[in-house]
Amino acid sequence: MTARGSKGARAAAAGIEGTVIAAHGRHYLVAPADGGAMLQCFPRGKRSEVAVGDRVTYERSSADQGVIVRIGERRNLLYRSDQFKSKLFAANLDQLLIVLATEPHFSEDLLGRALIAAEAHELEPLIVLNKIDVEAALPFARKRLAPYRELGYTVIELSAKAAPGAVHPQLDARLKGRATLLLGQSGMGKSTLVNALSPALAARVGEVSTSLHAGRHTTSAAMLYRLDALGVDGWVVDSPGMKQFGLAHVTPDALEQAFVEMRPLLGHCRFRDCRHFREPGCAVRAAVDEGRVAAFRLDLLHALQREAFEMKAFAIALIVIT
Predict the structure, then answer these.
(1) Across-strand partners of 83?
(2) To the nearest 10°, the Cα dihedral for 173, 179, 185, 191?
(3) How many Cβ atoms from other residues are within 10 Å of residue 196's Cβ?
(4) Nearest-angstrom CA–CA distance, 311 and 317
(5) Which of 49, 112, 135, 236 is the most exposed place for a label (fewest CB within 10 A)?
(6) Calpha distance 115→124 (Å, rounded)
(7) Is the confidence at residue 297, as pLDDT, over 50?
(8) Contact, 9 vs 3, CB < 8 A?
(9) Please, what's the b/e burial string for 95-109 (b: 16 or more CB within 10 A of its CB; e: otherwise)?
């Protein structure tokens, strides 16, 4: 090959576009936009801000590896954070599917925070109550979810393991044409739900984990699956199980707006900067006293406000120290 030909080949290899379909630490699996074989990529530099679902530009460093040089413009980025660290979930999403189960008992705090995250990032929230075949635990789970139904949130009941045939009629239409993140605690049945959607998707778990050198998927890596094999033309991101969902990065105003029942009340408090604690003339507290807003929802807002304040104070302290 001539020097000119070699230079042309290098130029052709640079600036390739693809989608990040799995993430584990600084290891990312990228599917090329042209439909070629997946390859393992690494970010340029020490800091990594790449998320599953990102459209990226990469340069090949070998036949099966590359370096991510640019992240495309995002419609959104869903992540959790506290004053110590943040964890990226996925980018360019349309919908958040929160997977709960009759047993083990789901965390209502986690559910509430996930709904706030969906509202703050303008994602369609969808609650799935799994394992409804555990009939003894079903009434209690329904009772706990009743306040969320009253707020207008959709709750779908199914059993991905005991009745996998019911999954498609209930979910396919809601997944069609959308990028959906499956979120929930360990043991809720997220991976079983993915398996019920398509055994072919389940078969890819081992392939993707091997490519990432990530070990068992259920404890380590987020993965994006294309659902075109089901004829629904959508994407699903299956995330590792989680226990906590910090939202310290969400601004106080955005937090208030994310509580759907409080939106009509905002701007009607006596003080413009009211945070709805003990301020006189608070419209939100009056609504709680009258039973129009649940007290546990206001408690959640206060908890999130405190966390946001603590994160801001922590950041200021770091600046002063350095």
Answers:
(1) none
(2) 70
(3) 23
(4) 10
(5) 135
(6) 9
(7) yes
(8) no
(9) bbbbbbbbeeebbee
Q: How far is CA 301 from CA 104, 114, 216, in A?
A: 26, 13, 36
User: Whose CA is closest to 243, among 93, 90, 96, 114?
Assistant: 114
CA distance 126 to 117: 12
Rounded to whole angstroms, the Cα distance separating 159 from 129 reads 8
Q: What is the pLDDT of residues 254-273, one digit of tens each?
A: 999 999 999 999 999 999 99
Q: 274: left (phi > 0), else alpha (psi -120 to 50), else beta?
A: beta
pTM for the whole structure = 0.85
Using N-to-C axis directions, what is the helix angle for 190-197 and 199-212, rounded to 10°?
120
Q: Is the dihedral of CA 31, 36, 38, 39 positive or negative?
A: negative
Q: How far is CA 49 from CA 54, 151, 178, 214, 249, in A?
A: 10, 34, 23, 19, 15
Q: Is 206 exposed, middle or buried (0-12, 13-18, 19+ CB in 10 A)?
A: exposed
What residue type is assigned to position 317 of the chain?
A
